[in-house]
Design goal:
It is a single chain. Helix content is 37%, strand content 20%. The protein is an alpha/beta fold. The protein folds into two domains: 120 residues, Rossmann fold; 145 residues, LpxI C-terminal catalytic domain (Cytidine Deaminase, domain 2, 3-Layer(aba) Sandwich), CATH 3.40.140.80. It has a six-stranded mixed sheet with strand order 6-13-11-9-7-8. The protein has a five-stranded parallel sheet with strand order 3-2-1-4-5, sandwiched between helices. It has a two-stranded parallel sheet with strand order 10-12. Helix 7 runs parallel beside helix 8 and helix 8 runs parallel beside helix 9. The longest helix has 19 residues. It starts with a strand and ends with a helix.
Length: 280
């Protein structure tokens, strides 16, 4: 049960903006810590308080939320994975926390951040809080139904993406028939799709059925790094010349769902939410 005040660690994109907007509409005050270069005060007009913090200012973030009597926090929005290496300037508390990690996998870093907040009495809520309507159930969302070849590609892509997600490599893969064209690394979903498009144009697979598939991690911790797609994802698929975008049902946030579906129909893209129990 949410209290009447919630903290928000905001990265890039619409997801944290929508959380702040929807929480405010429900009478919940939102105290926002925006990551420098990723979140901006002008995008959060309904925020009770907005403060910009550098990536790595763990101690400062905890102090900020405690000063505003925050006991529950939502973490949402993209922070480019490459920023962890290029722009991370940890404060003393963050440096001590990171020093104890065996590796710098995203899930390990975020889990440690959550542990540090918990030491000060601050718990993390689901990243999908106030976005429950953004998680479509299983089914075909687009006007165009998948062909039998596209269904096979989606099933293969789903299984492949699940293996990748379990290894914390990425959540997205691009497949053609039973071949993997590209997997998501630190570059993110859109750049993975564009890279796959370039590879397909250069290969004999350019006439084959190609599917882009995005999934949640096995045993996904909903407090961080949920899979997200939006209009930009559809545009990337269209620009690459692909015909299918599939994602895991009820675990993938779709920003601007109605507009996403309209855009998929405009580009004749088959948009599918896949049920894990049927496809894994």
């Amino acid at each position: 049960m949410m209290t009447n005040r919630i903290g928000l660690i905001a990265g890039e994109g619409k997801m944290p903006i929508y959380i702040a907007r929807n929480a405010h509409a429900k009478g919940v005050e939102v105290v926002v810590a925006g990551i420098k270069g990723n979140a901006f005060a002008q995008d959060y007009p309904t925020a009770h308080v907005f403060k910009t913090l550098r990536l790595g200012q763990l101690g400062a973030a905890i102090r900020f939320f405690k000063e505003h009597n925050i006991t529950r926090v939502i973490m949402a929005g993209r922070v480019q994975h490459t920023s962890i290496f290029a722009n991370l300037m940890p404060d003393l508390r963050a440096a001590k926390a990171l020093a104890s990690l065996k590796n710098m996998q995203t899930k390990n870093i975020l889990a440690r951040v959550i542990d540090e907040f918990k030491k000060d009495g601050i718990e993390f809520a689901s990243s999908a809080s106030f976005l429950e309507d953004f998680l479509p159930p299983a089914g075909v969302l687009s006007a165009r139904q998948p062909t039998s070849e596209e269904e096979k590609a989606m099933q293969f892509g789903f299984q492949t993406a699940k293996h990748l997600a379990a290894l914390d490599i990425g959540l997205t893969c691009v497949v053609s028939q039973n071949a993997v064209i590209a997997v998501e690394g630190m570059e993110g979903t859109d750049r993975c799709i564009r890279r796959a498009g370039e590879l397909v144009k250069e290969s004999a697979q350019k006439k084959s059925t190609v599917a882009v598939v995005k999934v949640a991690r096995p045993n996904q911790d909903n407090r961080y790094d949920l899979p997200v797609i939006g209009k930009g994802t559809i545009e990337s698929v269209a620009q690459a010349g692909f015909s299918v975008l599939a994602f895991e049902a009820e675990k993938t946030l779709v920003m601007d769902l109605e507009e996403v579906v309209k855009l998929a129909d405009k580009h004749n893209i088959c948009l599918c939410a896949l049920e894990a129990s049927q496809k894994a």
